[in-house]
Design brief:
This protein is mostly beta strands. It has 2 helices and 18 strands. Belongs to the periplasmic pilus chaperone family.
Length: 249
């Protein structure tokens, strides 16, 4: 099923705003393997003023979570041209997550500017030190990956082969038959012309989404991999189904 929650849609506007943020994260997504004790994220402050970094984990609805992960330290001052390393640590509750597929969470970093800069900020409002300050928030996905999935060595290829387009009567379905969350960035019909009607989506493991787009004999589907890179694969159609042929780039 397509992740299509109002809160998730708002994330993208927040991420767009974070292009002007003072604090910068060292990645666009976090992969947390079950075998890892913790994962780290480096937060850089290239601005001329110090900022506070406030970090936490939430679910898909935006609710702050106290488990199964926690961020240490949750609040830290980062001086100009300096950085802080935030640790994402296991707490409890991981046994309740599926062992045959990924689970998704969201990692938030809210920057709190110096008091004298509050009047010029135009983003989310927070309460700090007894006075109202403005803050910009960056949000990236955190994927928890069970140990069983570590047996899959070439995830890009596995994702490509598990992706397909199926024509059922007059309906077109994009399918993700992998145990990974799949973010599909684009679908084109000749590597350059976007297929009309398609919008970027993230599909849960072993799910599919009905599309409104033209039927073609060949598609080029681009997904975002673990490192935030765009991977494009070619799919040829026959017998009401479009399947992976080869990687383009």
């Amino acid at each position: 099923m397509k992740t299509h929650l109002t809160w998730v849609a708002l994330l993208w506007s927040v991420l767009a705003a974070s292009a002007h943020a003072a604090l910068a994260l060292d990645r666009t997504r976090i992969i947390f393997p079950q075998q890892s004790a913790l994962e780290t994220v480096r937060v850089k402050n290239p601005a001329e003023q110090p900022y506070l970094s406030q970090a936490w984990i939430s679910d898909e609805q935006g609710n702050e979570l106290l488990e199964p992960f926690m961020v240490v330290p949750p609040l830290v001052r980062i001086n100009s041209d300096d950085y802080a390393v935030l640790r994402i640590e296991k707490v409890s509750g991981l046994d309740e997550l599926p062992s045959d597929r990924e689970s998704v969470f969201y990692f938030h970093v809210r920057e709190v500017p110096p008091k004298e800069m509050a009047s010029s900020a135009q983003s989310r409002v927070g309460q700090t030190g007894g006075s109202i300050q403005f803050a910009i928030e960056s949000v990236i996905k955190l994927f928890y990956r069970p140990a069983a999935l570590s047996q899959i060595k070439n995830i890009d290829l596995a994702q490509a082969k598990a992706t397909s387009i199926e024509m059922v009567q007059e309906e077109i379905w994009l399918e993700n038959n992998s145990p990974f969350y799949a973010t599909y960035f684009s679908i084109t019909d000749n590597q350059s012309n976007p297929v009309k009607g398609f919008e970027s989506i993230m599909l849960k493991p072993f799910s599919r989404e009905k599309l409104t787009m033209a039927v073609k004999g060949e598609y080029f589907i681009t997904h975002i991999n673990d490192y935030g890179a765009l991977i494009t694969n070619r799919y040829q159609c026959g017998n009401q189904r479009c399947q992976f042929v080869d990687r383009v780039k």
